[in-house]
Amino acid sequence: MTPLRQRMLEDMSIRNLATNTQMSYVQQVAAYAKYFRRPPQELGPEDIRTYQLYLLETRKLAPSSIGLATGALRFLYKVTLKQPWAVEEIPMPKRPFKLPVILSREEVMHFLEAVSSLKHRTLLTAIYAAGLRVSEATHLKITDIDSQRMMLRVDQGKGQKDRYVMLSPRLLDTLRLYWKAARPTLWLFPGDLPDQPITRDAVGQACQKAHRASGIAKPITPHSLRHAFATHLLEAGTNVRTIQLLLGHRSLATTSRYLKVASSTVCATTSPFDLLPKVEEPPPLTPTPPAHF
């Protein structure tokens, strides 16, 4: 390990950045140095601009992927290398605002029925029933189930924050049936190695397989179930602030985007077209006879 990488890892650890963030930032800086075949200390703003254009025009990466690389370089040059130009000279790409595609309740049920594995179906059901992120669901432990208070404990979710979410009676029954069949000991959803939780990739592959089997045309990822959880709660009349707490969102603005997709808000207002007096239907078109020459 180079001294620079060690220093950057120490800087991230001091600031208590999540482990996944640390790994991603180190990988991004390594790819950046490999592209120029020079150490980052010898590179500057123009090199960063060249690299961003390479990611955009040659690699054809999405703004979110370029933003990850940019975040890593900003940290490197501002915190670890302490360059005064760091933030000002490293532009962050603007991400396009996209609304999530929402599954209906019937589509959620149909999708879950298409999941063939009991473990995968139970995990994906928990994501929908409690609004979990996939990383939160994969890291659930047996001890996180509080059937007395009907709560699930989310240990160190995004932003390294603990929170409690609802444990519905139906989900509790589902978890109990799964436990009787699988008998997990530490992790609720163990991976190939019993002392390790199931991986995100394994959940993603199971989701893709079920998506194909379901025949649902809408795109579906594990996160789609979390989107559906929030939207269905909102449509049922749950307060936005309550949904924010359940989802573990830092900002209410993040949760409020579901107002844009919930049928209870989008469809609650009558279209002015429906208020117009009924207009008589126009007479059917008379086919024009063919011209004769």
Features of this protein?
293 residues; mainly alpha; hpI Integrase, Chain A; 2 domains; three-stranded antiparallel sheet; 14 helices; 52% helix
Short précis:
The chain is mostly helical.
Helices and strands in order, then pairings?
Layout: H1 3-14, H2 19-36, H3 45-58, H4 63-80, H5 86-89, H6 105-113, H7 118-130, H8 134-138, E1 145-146, E2 151-157, E3 161-166, H9 169-182, H10 200-214, H11 222-235, H12 240-247, H13 252-256, H14 263-266
Antiparallel strand pairs: 1-2, 2-3
What is the count of helical runs?
14
* Proper CATH architecture of the largest domain: Orthogonal Bundle
* Overall pLDDT: 89
Query: Kindly, what is the distance between the CA atoms of the first and last residues, rounded to a whole number of angstroms?
Result: 87 Å
**Shape category:** globular
Structural class: mainly alpha
β-strand amount: 5-15%
Q: In order across it, which strands form the biggest sheet?
A: 1-2-3
CATH topology descriptor of the largest domain:
hpI Integrase, Chain A
How many strands appear in the DSSP assignment? 3
Walkthrough of the structure:
With 293 residues, the protein is mostly helical. It has two domains: 3-89, DNA polymerase, domain 1, CATH 1.10.150.130; 105-266, hpI Integrase, Chain A (Orthogonal Bundle), CATH 1.10.443.10. The chain is built from 14 helices and three strands.
